[in-house]
Amino acid sequence: MSEAPSLDKRRAERVKVQLELSFADGRRFCTGELRDISSTGAGVEALEGCPRGTRLTLVLPLRPPVKLQGEIQWVVQDGLHYRMGIRFLGIGPAEEREIKRLVEDLKWSRR
Predict the structure, then answer these.
(1) What is the distance between the terminal CA atoms of the chain, rounded to a whole angstrom?
(2) Pick from 30, 14, 35: which is nearest to 84 by CA?
(3) What is d(CA 62, CA 49) in angstroms, rounded to the nearest whole number?
(4) For the segment 9-61, what is each residue's pLDDT rounded down to a tens digit?
(5) For residue 27, how many other CB atoms are within 10 A of its CB?
(6) Is residue 1 domain-resident?
(7) Does 2 map to a domain?
(8) Residue 26 belongs to domain with CATH number
(9) Domain membership flag for residue 89
């Protein structure tokens, strides 16, 4: 398992969140919890981990649901759970707007 990166290496501010999400790696379908998100990536916690470099399809529970492609950058086992850092890939303008809207909404709701 890879180590989690230091926070100063991130290119975009991450906002803490707790949302259920689903993701698939092409062979299996999993559910987990979105723990943080930015316009460039997300932190996910799940009962199943995937190796670093695995490409995933993530479905964010927004209205309408937003489907994103990502790649696992790091994985850390934490007891029975796995924490994974995911970098978004090939995000189109519509998905980027939705993610930025979610991040801004979350930042405002915490003030």
Answers:
(1) 36
(2) 35
(3) 24
(4) 556 677 888 888 999 998 999 999 999 988 889 999 999 889 999 999 998 87
(5) 7
(6) no
(7) no
(8) 2.40.10.220
(9) yes
